[in-house]
Amino acid sequence: MTDKTDIVDLITGHRRMRRNRKADWTRRMVRENQLTVDDLIWPIFLVPGTNVVEPIAAMPGVMRLSVDKAVEAAREAADLGIPALATFPNVDLSLRDDTGSHSLDADNLINQATRAIKKAVPGIGVITDVALDPFTSHGHDGILRDGEIVNDETVSQIARAAIAQADAGADIIAPSDMMDGRIGVIRQALDAAGHQNVGIMAYATKFASAFYGPYREAIGTSGLLKGDKKTYYIDPANGTEALRDAALDVEEGADMMMVKPGLPYLDICWRMKDAFGLPVFAYQVSGEYSMIKAAGAQGWIDEERVMMETLLAFKRAGCDGILSYFALDVARLLARKG
Ligand code: PBG
């Protein structure tokens, strides 16, 4: 064995991975995962008023929309085939208080939007986030007393807020607060109020992440938030704890689950899908979006390709869908490509 070529042949032999990669048609033939419009959930931000389309500095390309504009956005999303929207309100500061009491108002911004969207575009799913942070003067997801976010009282208020959201026509309630026991209480409350068909997408594993920064500008909590959310969100270091937390949500009646943030937590997506078999959705959060936008704007990365690659990565990690601020752009792109 003196010839170099012989040695190389012996080493690789029949194990030539590149055969399947040699042409576009072979690559398409062996492709394991596809991203389709059915995988997309579009988070949108709401503001009071009419005819308002307000840019968010930290999230280039994302707007806060008044309800009438949100209805137009819903129509466009539905026309493109996006299955569902997730709504997040930027509530007037004068309506925020210590306990987030405005969350219970049947006519608050989130409920107004649900009613208007379901009336005008009944074919699109409306997922409402239930948490107190858009409504509290301190930006926390729960009721703050003596420096502590009190769990059980928060849960009972969130359950009542969930009923108001379901009354307004929400199809799926997504509790994003990470209080203990909330899924079970919300399920019972919804059932007792006659909302057996309203689903629950548990923010099953929500991590205490720095990636939420731009979102807080979007809903106007960045200047308000005192301290951090480490006493209720999960420590980014903990995967097994996240699974235990998710197991409780499953036990308590979650119909589907979410992992948040998305890309840095693909291991959690995979483990959750594997462990429970429930539909798992990743939330590609504001910071993930803004990083791609910023690097794209600088010309450091190809924004469109990175966007598509990240979304495909969620599919590969076992996700059934992705909440993404790119949803509309992606849907348009997929429509163009046919
Ligand atoms: C809180 C909530 C957060 C997000 C949605 N709901 C996190 C937070 O402000 O702590 C973040 C979404 C994003 O970053 O895109 N209930």
Automatic annotation (TrEMBL):
* Active site per database record: 206 (schiff-base intermediate with substrate), 260 (schiff-base intermediate with substrate)
Is Metal-binding tagged as a keyword?
Answer: no
Q: Which InterPro entries match?
A: ALAD (IPR001731), ALAD_AS (IPR030656), Aldolase_TIM (IPR013785)
Q: Does the keyword Transmembrane apply?
A: no
* GO CC terms of this entry: cytosol
Which CDD domains does this one have?
Answer: ALAD_PBGS_aspartate_rich (cd04823)
User: A Pfam family name for this chain?
Assistant: ALAD
Q: Which GO terms describe its molecular function?
A: porphobilinogen synthase activity; zinc ion binding
Q: In which pathway does it act?
A: Porphyrin-containing compound metabolism; protoporphyrin-IX biosynthesis; coproporphyrinogen-III from 5-aminolevulinate: step 1/4
| Entry EC no(s) | 4.2.1.24
Biological process (GO) annotations held by this record are: heme biosynthetic process
Keyword set, alphabetical order: Heme biosynthesis, Lyase, Porphyrin biosynthesis
The reaction(s) annotated as catalysed by this protein in its Swiss-Prot or TrEMBL entry are: 2 5-aminolevulinate = porphobilinogen + 2 H2O + H(+)
Summary of subunit composition and partner proteins: Homooctamer.
**Per its UniProt record, what PANTHER family does this chain match?**
DELTA-AMINOLEVULINIC ACID DEHYDRATASE
Describe the family membership recorded for this protein in Swiss-Prot or TrEMBL.
Belongs to the ALAD family.
Name of the protein described by the UniProt record = Delta-aminolevulinic acid dehydratase
Q: Which organism is it from?
A: Ferranicluibacter rubi
Organism phylogeny: Bacteria, Pseudomonadati, Pseudomonadota, Alphaproteobacteria, Hyphomicrobiales
Q: Which gene encodes it?
A: hemB
